[in-house]
Amino acid sequence: MEFTTFLFYAFSALLVFAALRVVTDRNPVHAALYLILSFFSASAIWMLLKAEFLAIVLVLVYVGAVMVLFLFVVMMLDIDMAKLRAGFWGHLPLAATIGVLVAIEIAAVMMNAFMVAEAQPAGASIGDTRELGKLIYTE
Protein backbone atom coordinates (compact mmCIF):
# COMPACT_ATOMS: atom_id res chain seq x y z
CA MET A 1 0.00 0.00 0.00
CA GLU A 2 1.32 3.40 -0.93
CA PHE A 3 1.75 6.10 1.67
CA THR A 4 -0.82 8.39 0.02
CA THR A 5 -3.38 5.58 0.07
CA PHE A 6 -2.68 5.07 3.78
CA LEU A 7 -3.11 8.80 4.40
CA PHE A 8 -6.38 8.79 2.47
CA TYR A 9 -7.79 5.98 4.60
CA ALA A 10 -6.53 7.60 7.81
CA PHE A 11 -8.10 10.97 7.00
CA SER A 12 -11.30 9.25 5.84
CA ALA A 13 -11.57 7.33 9.10
CA LEU A 14 -10.93 10.53 11.05
CA LEU A 15 -13.58 12.32 8.99
CA VAL A 16 -16.18 9.61 9.63
CA PHE A 17 -15.35 9.58 13.36
CA ALA A 18 -15.58 13.37 13.64
CA ALA A 19 -18.84 13.45 11.68
CA LEU A 20 -20.36 10.84 13.99
CA ARG A 21 -19.22 12.82 17.02
CA VAL A 22 -20.79 15.99 15.59
CA VAL A 23 -24.15 14.24 15.57
CA THR A 24 -23.83 12.26 18.82
CA ASP A 25 -22.04 14.68 21.15
CA ARG A 26 -24.18 16.13 23.92
CA ASN A 27 -22.27 19.39 24.25
CA PRO A 28 -22.90 21.79 21.32
CA VAL A 29 -19.47 23.42 21.73
CA HIS A 30 -17.75 20.04 21.47
CA ALA A 31 -19.92 19.19 18.47
CA ALA A 32 -18.79 22.40 16.76
CA LEU A 33 -15.16 21.55 17.49
CA TYR A 34 -15.65 18.08 16.01
CA LEU A 35 -17.16 19.78 12.96
CA ILE A 36 -13.99 21.84 12.63
CA LEU A 37 -11.98 18.61 12.84
CA SER A 38 -14.12 17.07 10.11
CA PHE A 39 -13.58 20.12 7.89
CA PHE A 40 -9.81 19.84 8.36
CA SER A 41 -9.94 16.11 7.54
CA ALA A 42 -11.95 16.79 4.39
CA SER A 43 -9.46 19.50 3.47
CA ALA A 44 -6.60 17.04 3.86
CA ILE A 45 -8.40 14.61 1.55
CA TRP A 46 -8.78 17.40 -1.02
CA MET A 47 -5.04 18.05 -0.73
CA LEU A 48 -4.31 14.36 -1.35
CA LEU A 49 -6.49 14.55 -4.46
CA LYS A 50 -4.43 17.53 -5.70
CA ALA A 51 -7.33 19.99 -5.35
CA GLU A 52 -5.48 22.58 -3.32
CA PHE A 53 -7.88 25.42 -4.11
CA LEU A 54 -10.86 23.50 -2.78
CA ALA A 55 -8.90 22.53 0.33
CA ILE A 56 -7.93 26.09 1.18
CA VAL A 57 -11.42 27.40 0.41
CA LEU A 58 -12.88 24.80 2.76
CA VAL A 59 -10.56 25.87 5.54
CA LEU A 60 -10.86 29.61 4.98
CA VAL A 61 -14.60 29.83 4.39
CA TYR A 62 -16.01 27.16 6.66
CA VAL A 63 -13.48 26.96 9.48
CA GLY A 64 -12.35 30.56 9.33
CA ALA A 65 -15.72 32.26 9.08
CA VAL A 66 -18.75 30.02 9.49
CA MET A 67 -17.47 27.91 12.38
CA VAL A 68 -16.14 30.90 14.29
CA LEU A 69 -19.53 32.53 13.97
CA PHE A 70 -21.28 29.30 14.96
CA LEU A 71 -19.05 28.87 18.03
CA PHE A 72 -19.67 32.49 19.01
CA VAL A 73 -23.44 32.05 18.79
CA VAL A 74 -23.43 28.70 20.62
CA MET A 75 -21.29 30.07 23.43
CA MET A 76 -23.31 33.26 23.78
CA LEU A 77 -26.71 31.53 23.92
CA ASP A 78 -27.85 29.89 27.11
CA ILE A 79 -29.26 26.66 25.69
CA ASP A 80 -31.30 24.40 27.96
CA MET A 81 -30.23 20.99 26.67
CA ALA A 82 -32.76 19.03 28.75
CA LYS A 83 -35.60 20.95 27.09
CA LEU A 84 -34.17 20.24 23.62
CA ARG A 85 -33.88 16.50 24.30
CA ALA A 86 -37.40 16.17 25.67
CA GLY A 87 -38.96 14.84 22.45
CA PHE A 88 -35.98 12.86 21.14
CA TRP A 89 -37.25 9.33 21.74
CA GLY A 90 -40.69 10.16 20.37
CA HIS A 91 -39.25 11.19 16.99
CA LEU A 92 -36.64 8.41 16.78
CA PRO A 93 -38.73 5.89 14.73
CA LEU A 94 -39.54 8.48 12.05
CA ALA A 95 -35.93 9.71 11.95
CA ALA A 96 -34.59 6.16 11.72
CA THR A 97 -36.99 5.35 8.88
CA ILE A 98 -35.96 8.43 6.93
CA GLY A 99 -32.28 7.64 7.58
CA VAL A 100 -32.68 4.10 6.25
CA LEU A 101 -34.51 5.38 3.15
CA VAL A 102 -31.73 7.90 2.45
CA ALA A 103 -29.10 5.16 2.86
CA ILE A 104 -31.01 2.89 0.45
CA GLU A 105 -31.25 5.72 -2.11
CA ILE A 106 -27.53 6.47 -1.86
CA ALA A 107 -26.72 2.76 -2.26
CA ALA A 108 -28.98 2.53 -5.33
CA VAL A 109 -27.32 5.53 -6.97
CA MET A 110 -23.84 4.19 -6.22
CA MET A 111 -24.67 0.72 -7.54
CA ASN A 112 -26.08 2.26 -10.72
CA ALA A 113 -22.93 4.34 -11.16
CA PHE A 114 -20.71 1.28 -10.73
CA MET A 115 -22.79 -0.72 -13.21
CA VAL A 116 -22.54 2.07 -15.78
CA ALA A 117 -18.78 2.35 -15.18
CA GLU A 118 -18.32 -1.39 -15.73
CA ALA A 119 -20.27 -1.22 -19.00
CA GLN A 120 -17.90 1.45 -20.42
CA PRO A 121 -14.94 0.39 -22.59
CA ALA A 122 -11.54 0.25 -20.92
CA GLY A 123 -10.25 3.56 -22.32
CA ALA A 124 -13.44 5.58 -21.77
CA SER A 125 -14.19 7.45 -18.60
CA ILE A 126 -17.36 8.95 -17.22
CA GLY A 127 -17.25 12.68 -16.64
CA ASP A 128 -13.77 13.32 -17.98
CA THR A 129 -13.23 17.03 -17.44
CA ARG A 130 -10.60 17.42 -20.13
CA GLU A 131 -12.79 15.83 -22.80
CA LEU A 132 -15.77 17.91 -21.68
CA GLY A 133 -13.68 21.07 -21.93
CA LYS A 134 -12.52 20.18 -25.44
CA LEU A 135 -16.10 19.50 -26.48
CA ILE A 136 -17.41 22.76 -25.00
CA TYR A 137 -14.70 25.04 -26.34
CA THR A 138 -14.22 23.50 -29.80
CA GLU A 139 -17.71 22.60 -31.01
Secondary structure elements and their pairing?
Blueprint: H1 3-24, H2 28-48, H3 52-76, H4 81-84, H5 88-119, H6 129-138
Helix pairs in contact: 1-2, 2-3
SSE string, helices as H and strands as E: HHHHHH
| Percent of residues in helices | over 70%
Look at the structure and give the mean pLDDT: 84
Structural class: mainly alpha
The tally of strands reads 0
Distance between the termini: 42 Å
Description of the structure:
The protein is mainly α and 139 residues long. It is 82% helix and 0% strand. Helix 1 runs antiparallel to helix 2 (28-48) and helix 2 (28-48) runs antiparallel to helix 3 (52-76). The longest helix is centred in the C-terminal third of the chain and has 32 residues, at 88-119. The model has no long low-confidence stretch (mean pLDDT 84).
List key phrases describing it.
139 residues; 6 helices; mainly alpha
Summary, kept brief:
The protein is mainly alpha-helical and 139 residues long. It has six helices and no strands. It is extended and about 60 Å long.
